[in-house]
Amino acid sequence: MIIILIGYMASGKSTIGKKLAKKLNYDLIDLDDYIEEKEQLTVTDIFKNKGEIYFRKQETHYLKQLLSANESFILSLGGGTPCFGNNMELILNETNAKSIYLKASLPKLVKKLIKKKAKRPLIAHIETEEALTEFIGKHLFERSAFYNQAEVVVATDGKSKKEIVNE
Ligand code: S3P
């Protein structure tokens, strides 16, 4: 079984993924880390040197590669992964996989991302909290149509990491 964690940037996919992996004694694969290792470039440098379209192509390529593995692990996706091409369909059609959306509210995401935007090329250039709120608000609205297709939705606001992992 592949447990797939999806959600917006800073929704806790990597953090919860690590804890869940420990609890279930599963390996954790973080798709961004996997792409960086395979491409020998950071996500920031892929965006900068090769462009977002190249990144999205490789993201789909490595997603397919991982989904075809007949193994059990936790797969933490990038925030955009389910929202491009037919990636969400691929995820939902994979009988060996279960998708979980870690759903955080806009204010929570803004609060985290204002401090953690540097490594995220899509928002690194946004200066003020107001502008970030506007951008993420629209982006999250568009992306929610994909995220909400996940088989399980876990609302994370106000919950401890332990509660989220248990849920
Ligand atoms: C992206 C999210 C990032 C990374 C890339 C693009 C997105 O992953 O894949 O910067 O489109 O939301 P995280 O969700 O782990 O930040």
Automatic annotation (TrEMBL):
Binding site for Mg(2+): 14
EC number: 2.7.1.71
Pathway per the UniProt entry: Metabolic intermediate biosynthesis; chorismate biosynthesis; chorismate from D-erythrose 4-phosphate and phosphoenolpyruvate: step 5/7
Any one GO BP annotation for this protein: chorismate biosynthetic process
Compartment annotation: Cytoplasm
Gene3D superfamilies on file: P-loop containing nucleotide triphosphate hydrolases
PANTHER family: SHIKIMATE KINASE, SHIKIMATE KINASE 1, CHLOROPLASTIC
Protein name: Shikimate kinase
